[in-house]
Amino acid sequence: MTGDYSAPQIGRLRDAVKNYGRGMRFMKVSGSMATDKVTNYIRDCIMAGKWQSGDKLPTEQEFCTQVGVSRSCVREAMKVLEASHIVEIRRGDGTYISDPDQISFMGPLLFKIILKKNTLQELYDFRESIEMGVMRLAICNANADDFANLESCNQKMQDFIDQRKSDSWELYQLDLMFHKHLAEATHNTIMRDVYQFTFDIFAPFILQNYEKGQNAESALATHTEILNALKSGDFLQVGYAIRASVDLWSTWIGQENARDIVLAELWKTNRPDRQPKSIPEESD
């Protein structure tokens, strides 16, 4: 390809890429398109490595000049990005790129999935695929501490059974704790975040199943199968364990509309008297 260009032409192309966005002027637009233009510009700059976590962003006036939008559109874009924790607005100081661990990048996708009329089969296939991916990485990367954490989760659920407890919320928390440690056993931060997102979708289903009568014994049995498969390193056993777990979950859901279940149950996991629905932090 480079044979089609002279050395000076190649040099100018490289300079154009290097200086992309510097001093550029755009036709002014307004409304949601202008807001998207600002957010997309910031996204592209981050992806290009121009801005890193902790970097201070240009002022509103500088954004207006660089992107070609009004100050109100810049402010609206910053509100959108702040809501997703992509930027941090420090009053009287400026706007900064957030710490990556604070960014809830899948929030919009979560609500898109919730509001769509997903079939049970779609949800089943999605969860099984994610669970299999997690297990493959965990088989390769899990260490002694990971196995100890998972065994501790199973022991806590066994204690719950032995004490003849019936608190569906406590059982739900124990279930999520097991999957939190399973995600950590991958030692892959991307997969961990995707897995947490997966449980943001399925947490209402899991809680609803326990409230409908799914018992701790069945949950413990599937968790034990998963842990044994992980220890064995046998991918065939892993596949069996994951399918057994997802089958149990889907059996309790039945043929009810997936969207209706989520919308009906989601409020419960956001009540102020309860912990967040996503994978929880472990308590002592």
Structure description:
- With 284 residues, this protein is an all-alpha fold.
- The chain folds into two domains: 31-102, Arc Repressor Mutant, subunit A (Orthogonal Bundle); 106-270, Up-down Bundle (Four Helix Bundle (Hemerythrin (Met), subunit A)).
- It contains twelve helices and two strands; from the N terminus they run ααααββαααααααα.
- It has helices at 7-18, 31-47, 60-67, 71-83, 107-115, 120-141, 144-162, 168-184, 189-212, 216-232, 235-253, 258-265, and strands at residues 87-90, 94-97.
- It has a two-stranded antiparallel sheet with strand order 1-2.
- Mean pLDDT is 77; it is low at 16-30 and 255-280.
Computed Rg: 24 Å
Summed up, the domain count is: 2
Would you count the extended β strands for me? 2
CATH topology category name of the largest domain: Four Helix Bundle (Hemerythrin (Met), subunit A)
Q: Can you summarize the main beta sheet?
A: 2 strands, antiparallel
Under CATH at level 1, the class of the largest domain stands as Mainly Alpha
**Percent of residues in beta strands?**
under 5%
Query: So how many helices?
Result: 12
Q: Judging by the overall fold, what is the CATH architecture of the largest domain?
A: Up-down Bundle
- Element-by-element helix/strand order: HHHHEEHHHHHHHH
Query: Unreliable runs, pLDDT <50, ≥5 residues?
Result: 16-30, 255-280
Q: How far apart, in Å, are the first and last alpha carbons?
A: 61 Å
Helix vs. strand class: mainly alpha
